[in-house]
Specification:
This protein is mainly alpha-helical. About 50% of the residues lie in helices and about 10% in strands. This is Type II toxin-antitoxin system VapC family toxin.
Length: about 130
């Protein structure tokens, strides 16, 4: 999202991700990105999806399936870090699936904010 919305962290994120061997996202993350992009840029969700899809293709980002294993890991994550548990990470559903997708693929998680610093996921934080 930072790249698509040209946020302050966009350059740092592009530089850091350039060094990675494999970039992966999920359909859920693409859904969140396209709906947010559509809301911010004030265009249709379909147009938002097309922009996100084109960006992912240009950046060679693989879209990984959300399978039963990812679901299991997301439920485990929620049990530990979901906002309903009162944990300081205060993850939401999308966060839990991002965590799970990264875990299932044995990849680091790139993220903004300070929610994932309270978890056990390996990753790289950008911005605040």
């Amino acid at each position: 999202m930072a790249n698509l919305l040209e946020e302050a962290e966009a350059v740092a994120i592009r530089e850091a991700l350039f060094d990675e061997n494999e970039l992966v996202t999920s359909p859920l993350a693409m859904f969140e990105a396209s709906t947010r992009l559509a809301a911010v840029k004030r265009f249709s969700i379909d147009d938002g999806y097309r922009v996100v899809q084109a960006f992912m293709e240009d950046a060679n980002v693989r879209v990984a399936a959300i399978d039963a294993e990812v679901g299991r890991i997301a439920h485990r994550c929620a049990g530990l870090y979901h906002h309903a548990t009162g944990h300081p990470a205060r993850l939401n559903m999308g966060d839990c699936f991002a965590y799970a997708s990264a875990r299932a693929a044995s990849l680091k998680l790139a993220y903004k904010g300070d929610d994932f610093i309270h978890t056990d996921i390996e990753g790289q934080r950008f911005g605040s």
